[in-house]
Structures are given as C-alpha cells and as structure tokens.
Specification:
Blueprint lengths: L1 H47 L8 H15 L7 H11 L8 H14 L7 H18 L4 H20 L2 H10 L2 E2 L7 H17 L17 H34 L4 H18 L9 H8 L8 H14 L7 H19 L3 H17 L2 H12 L4 H14 L10 E2 L7 E2 L12 E2 L6 H15 L1
Parallel strand pairs: 1-2
Antiparallel strand pairs: 3-4
Length: 447
C-alpha cells in the first residue's frame, strides 16, 4: 500500500509540475511566435505592393546567409531540422542567438520572395525560448529535452492554428515510426495554450471545410489509395529535389553569402520564365486549390525547385508551407487526370504530402480533420498512411531517427539518422511482396 501511495504521489506531483511548465512554455512561445508572425505579415504585404519586389532576392539571401554564418550557424536552413538535431544530439540545448537571427533572416527571405515557410522558424523560436527558460532555471538534460519538445509543438500549433495536430507533430517528427508518450501531455497543453495566446492577440488562421463531392463507394476508396501512392511519389520528388539542391550548393566552393547572391539571381530568372506564383509562402495558390481552382500541371515540381534553391543558397525559413503548396497543387493535378473533385483532392494532397515528406502520418491525419472537417478525415487518413509508406526511408528532415521498417521485405538498419539509412530489398523473397516481385520478373521475361 505504501509503495502504491508513494508511486501515485510522485506521478501526481509530476503531472502538476508538467502542466505548469507546459502552460508557461505555451504562453512564452505563443507570445514569441505572434511577434514573428505579425512582423512577417507586415513585411510581406509591404514588399508585395511593388511588382518587382523579387529583384531584392540576391540582396536578401546574401544578408540572410551573412547573419546565419556569423551570428548563429544553427539557424541555417529550415529550422525544424536543426531543432530535431538539437533534441537528439544536444539534449535540446539551443543557443540564445538562434531565436532573433532566425526571426530576422526568415522575414528578410520571405518578404523578398524566397520560397520557404513560416513554421520552421516558429518551431525553432519555440524550442529556443524553451531551451533558454530551461537554462535559466537549471533544468537537467532530460527536463530541458522535454520542454524543448513542448516548444516545438507549441510553435507548430500557433503558426497553423491546429493545436492537436501541432502537439502530435512535435512528438512524432523526432522519430520515424515512434512517438514519445512521456511528452504527450505537456505537448498537448503547450500547443493548446500557445494557439489560444496567438489567436487572442489577433493571429488569424485558415480553416476550410471540405464537402465531399462523391458518395462513398469501393471504387472511390480505390481512387483514394491511388491518390496516396501518387502523393507519396510527389513527396519523394520533393525530398530528392531538396537533396540535389543541397549537394549542388556544397559543390560550389565559394563564400557562403556569395551563394545567396547566386541563388537569388537564379530565382529571379525562373520567376521571369514562369511566374511569381512560386515565390514566398504561396498561400493564395493553396487557398485557390482548396476552393476548386486548378493549377498548372507543373506547379508542384516548380515549387519544389524554387524551395530547394532558396534553402540551399542561403535563404532561411521553414519547409511545411511549401509542402502544403506541393500537396495541394499535386492534388489538383491528380483530380484533373482522374475526373475527381479538385477541392477534395487538393485537401487530401495537402496533408498526404506532409505525411510522406515529414514521416508524420498521424499528425497529418489529425490536421486534415482540424483544417477541413471530419467528413474528409477517413479518406485523408488512408491517403496519408499510403503516402508515408510510399515515400520510403527518406525525409525532408535528415536528422530524424528511423525506428521502424516500412516493409518487412526491405533490409534497413533502425536506430540511425535518416540521412545515414541505406535501404535494400531482401534477397530471395518468400513473403507475399517477394512473390509479387517474382511474378513481375517472369512477366518481363515473357515480353
């Protein structure tokens, strides 16, 4: 009896403690991200009033690269990746300089037309503020790590207005195929509090209920699975585009800020060839897709190229908003090719490409419900899981730790960072997958 009372007492104190700490984290992150979002909106609107604002891209990316290189190298690229790395390798410790540098570098990049998102900086700002708080009060490594994860969740919740999906994203994005259950409660609390703080301070969010055009049928369900496969391939293309851009940039043996000028010039040239549609956040295109407006068939690969150049050549920002653009525009393409409802599959594509590219099928499925309503949730969930599997052992976040094999027919070592993972098909398959592959080989020989 004494042992039970002692255990329950300790657990009760732990719950109260983390409710309090998570609430504080949510308030701090909500305030910080609100400042960032308001500055970002003001600067983006001010610059977009001028037709050729994107001509500032070389200067903006040069300044962004200089700030990151000399003031806070950890603020490089899309912020979520650096936060994941800090959680896995440094117990969540993040330098204080990262927060203001990431804020300013991202504002400069997006305002001038850089193709990046706003969620990565919010996650990094949230994690940075939480890390600073943990250092001030001398938290141990484990407690700092938990608080930083709360900061990630709070950052995502406040930027997209999806408190539940944001909380789940913060704990799901760290490992592929595993969730940190010990951080679920504080992450939920931090996400909900942060969202309400930002909303009460005037941050507005996009929510669009999607009314399913087709009535459920077996054939429609098959089309949803086919869509999941297509969106998984789109996720793969985005990941490989980002990887190619990063490798190409590394091969240029020049001063890092000079790469910003080169990247800016390339983006200007591409903008004159295609359009301004692929610059900045691209929210207009995303919202139009969700109302049934079709995009060009090449919209999603072009957005991938613009984003890859921006991030690889000195720009600063997130990756999830470009993922939304890629997913929604890929959804309109799929719907156009199959004669399905454009708005429905733009919504399914938006969350499915997130599930595949970031390896977060649970958070993406919940996000579908929070953004688009419960009617689309069953279909979006199926497409999200299929997309997650189809993407393979790849990720837009190379520091994610692989905790599962996506198929028993693949040889892959778990417990490693995604960028170190090498996946190979098992020889002499005896499974159903192996049988199917054998049939395919026989069919090819017969032809």
């Amino acid at each position: 009896m004494k042992r039970r009372i002692k255990e329950e007492t300790i657990l009760f104190i732990s719950v109260i403690k983390w409710v309090f700490l998570a609430t504080l984290a949510g308030i701090m992150v909500g305030l910080s991200t609100t400042v960032f979002l308001k500055l970002l909106n003001w600067s983006a609107k001010s610059c977009s009033q001028y037709n050729y604002y994107f001509l500032l891209l070389p200067v903006a990316m040069f300044l962004s690269a200089v700030m990151v290189k000399y003031l806070a190298p950890d603020a490089e690229g899309h912020g979520t990746e650096k936060v994941i790395e800090a959680v896995h390798k440094h117990s969540g410790k993040i330098k204080a300089a990262v927060v203001p540098v990431k804020l300013l570098a991202t504002i400069i990049t997006i305002a001038s037309g850089g193709s990046v998102g706003k969620e990565g900086p919010c996650a990094q700002i949230g994690a940075g503020v939480s890390s600073i708080f943990a250092d001030i009060f001398k938290f141990d490594n484990n407690e700092r790590r938990k608080l930083v994860i709360c900061g990630i969740s709070a950052g995502f919740a406040s930027v997209f207005g999806t408190p539940i999906a944001g909380a789940i994203f913060g704990v799901e994005v760290l490992f592929v195929g595993a969730i940190l259950y010990d951080v679920l409660l504080p992450s939920f609390i931090a996400g909900i509090v942060s969202y309400h703080v930002s909303a009460s301070l005037g941050v507005t969010y996009f929510h669009h209920s999607v009314v399913l055009a087709p009535v459920f049928s077996n054939w429609f369900f098959v089309k949803v699975v086919m869509a999941g496969i297509f969106f998984g391939l789109c996720s793969l293309i985005l990941i490989e585009m980002l990887k190619f851009g990063d490798n190409f940039s590394k091969k240029l043996r020049v001063w890092a800020p000079l790469k910003g000028i080169i990247g800016g010039v390339i983006l200007i040239a591409l903008t004159f060839i295609f359009s301004k549609q692929y610059l900045g956040l691209g929210l207009d295109t995303i919202e139009n897709s969700l109302t049934g407006v079709k995009t060009a068939w090449y919209a999603f690969p072009m957005k991938s190229i613009f984003t890859s150049i921006t991030l690889s050549f000195g720009g600063s920002g997130g990756i999830v908003t470009p993922i939304f653009f890629v997913g929604s525009s890929a959804g309109t393409l799929f719907a156009s090719l199959t004669g399905l409802d454009v708005a429905t599959f733009a919504a399914i594509g938006l969350v499915s490409v997130l599930a595949g590219a970031a390896n977060t099928p649970i958070a993406a499925s919940i996000m579908a419900m929070e953004l688009f309503g419960t009617g689309i949730a069953p279909y979006a969930t199926v497409a999200c899981v299929v997309s997650f599997l189809m993407t393979g052992h790849r990720s837009v976040y190379p520091s994610q730790i692989l905790s599962m094999k996506k198929s028993s027919s693949i040889n892959v070592e778990t417990g490693k960072e995604m960028e170190m993972v090498i996946a190979e098909a098992k020889p002499r398959q005896k499974s159903l997958t192996g049988t199917i592959l054998k049939i395919v080989r026989i069919f090819r020989k017969a032809k």
